[in-house]
Amino acid sequence: MSEHISATDETGNSSVKDSAAIRKAVTEGEPSLPLFFVHPIELTFYNLKSNSEAHVWLQPEGGTRWGNGEPTSKLVGVSLSASPRGSPLPLNSFLINYRNVSLVTNALCSEIRARLYVHTLDRSFSGQVDLPPGASLTIESPRDRTTLAERGISSYTLKLR
Q1: pTM over 0.85, yes/no
Q2: Domain range summary for the chain, segments of one domain joined by +
Q3: DSSP-assigned letter for residue 99
Q4: What is the superkingdom listed in this entry's lineage (predicted)?
Q5: CA-CA 20 to 30 A from 23: which of 35, 52, 58, 134?
Q6: H or E element at residue 124
């Protein structure tokens, strides 16, 4: 997973393309330019049983949000895959909004991988995970990785830069 930092305004429109200009605007506190850095994130769910629900929340403080990339670049989309490679996704539902990613399975699955983005100005982000019994989750950024394997609600923090 390679790191790419770009910026979007609050509506998702790209306002600055140049990485040096983005860093300058952030470090000098340009008030008219509300920027978010866009970071690739990978969520890998393991050992989900049939009819399992899993949720990944972001902390409500701050402007951190889940996203599907930057509309004006090649960083667009959410990618889902199951293991073994090429097998159908055993999902009844997959939902992503600003603060929550949730899924419900319809069959036993050893691995489901979701690639998406987090939009934030912060150097890290935190949240909570709710996993079914026996399941685990690895959350990975280009700079950090954490694995949660507890039943119920667990907290996490992940470094981005």
Answers
A1: no
A2: 40-159
A3: S
A4: Bacteria
A5: 58
A6: strand 124-131
**Cβ contact 114:147 at 8 Å:** no
Q: Report the DSSP beta bridge partners of residue 79.
A: 115
pLDDT of residue 27: 57
DSSP structural state of residue 26: H
Sign, CA torsion 78/84/89/91: negative
Q: What ranges in 14-159 are assigned the alpha helix state H? A: 19-27
Distance, CA of 29 to CA of 107 (rounded, Å): 49
Place of tokens 């850095």: 37
Instruction: Take residue 111 and report the two structure tokens written for it.
Output: 């691995």
pLDDT tens readout for residues 92-141: 999 998 899 999 999 998 999 999 988 888 888 999 999 999 999 999 99
Beta strands in 14-108 (DSSP E): 36-48, 53-58, 65-67, 79-83, 91-96, 100-105
Please identify, in words, the CATH class of the domain defined by 40-159: mainly beta
Q: How far is the CA of 24 from the CAs of 47, 76, 129, in angstroms?
A: 44, 25, 34
- Token representation of residue 37: 């850095």
The number of beta carbons lying within 10 Å of the beta carbon of residue 147 is 12
